[in-house]
Amino acid sequence: MYFFSSPVFLLVLAIIRVTVGVPLGIDYDKTEGLTAEELENKGRLDQATTDAHAQVQKMREGFNKYKEGDEKATALYEASFGKNADPDKVDKTITALETENLRAKVGTHDFGDSTIASVPWSSEKKGKPWIAGDAQFSAQFHGHGPDGLDNAGRAGTVIHEATHQMKKTGDDVNLSGNIIKAYDGTSKQSGATGYTSNPNMHKTVAEVNADTSFTDVRDTAKNMHDNAESYAVFGSLCSQPGALRRRDVDLYNRALMEGDHEQLAHLARRNSCQLPKDYFTKKPAANKSTPPSKGAQAAAKGGSQGTPKKPLPDHGAQGAKSISQKGKTPAPGAAKGGLIKPGSKSPARLATKPSSNGASKPGSHPVSGAASRIGTKPASGKGHSLPSNAEANLTTSFSSLWVQAS
């Protein structure tokens, strides 16, 4: 019996836990005698934690691919952390999210402002270590009111708050432009934060890069690995369908080399992409250097071997116009429901109320106002087969297929 409580056994158990990995979990301040509201809150928090764990798994996959030099994963990573973050510290925080539990209060917390969630910090007395308390969640987190979060927003918030509690990440920016760690009660705040303007999480690199209040901090701070919101953003980006896959890119490159115009047309319709502008100028020369197939030779001789491919139908200029416009995506903010302009206020997940002398103080940062949702729907994928006179219109790069909305 002693073995099961010995330091050796506990060490082995910890190693197994880290190596095998367990779901991001949540521990509540109470599980019995819950009110009807607390039972509903618990159900939402359970689901949010399950969704957050799925995002953490995608985050791990994206980070590993970033470390391997994958261009697509690099775009997602740099959109979230910029180019100055320490990858080793990012790695350690993701590991904590993979293996530890968030401690949370199951009741609805009234912050008295528009704060969505918070992890309070306290110290017994000056000079003693700061200790993280249980995460607290507002009615807005639970989906109440006009600005209530959706499932994606709740999952991102759980990740955000978990990094506060597990790795002491912060939200506020000091006078040097760097992130203030959660337990730092002395650094003066500049007024900027590492939040994004969308509490329901950005879904694409383009949306993140258009959020200038976030990118101004991301591109200046030297320690974005300490920014809680960056992990929520990275988890969201990596979790979007096809975010880390490159299958269509490989199919496109192969079809381009083999001159398979039907496959290229299919990929163009499926992804609303367009061909390189010099593709059709190079095609005649490529055709001259490529020997005809046996089927084509037999057809030329009047033989019966093989059947040459039928020419693609010509839908005329109207069809060409519809294809060339498929790949266009409205610029962020071009329509109603776009990103909040710089300077607009949005709800915060956690912040610290500044004390009278300007120093940061553990607590919650009220930020009033409401963030708008953003997102331009991808083209439906409907379209025509590639007509012969549409060649001149297919002019832009295919890169939009695999660098997500870059």
From TrEMBL:
Residues 282-406 are annotated as: Disordered. Residues 386-406 have a biased composition (Polar residues). GO terms for molecular function: metallopeptidase activity. Residues 293-302, 326-338 have a biased composition (Low complexity). InterPro entries: MetalloPept_cat_dom_sf. It comes from the Eukaryota. Gene3D superfamilies: Collagenase (Catalytic Domain). Keywords: Signal. Residues 1-21 form the signal peptide. This is Lysine-specific metallo-endopeptidase domain-containing protein. It comes from Meripilus lineatus.
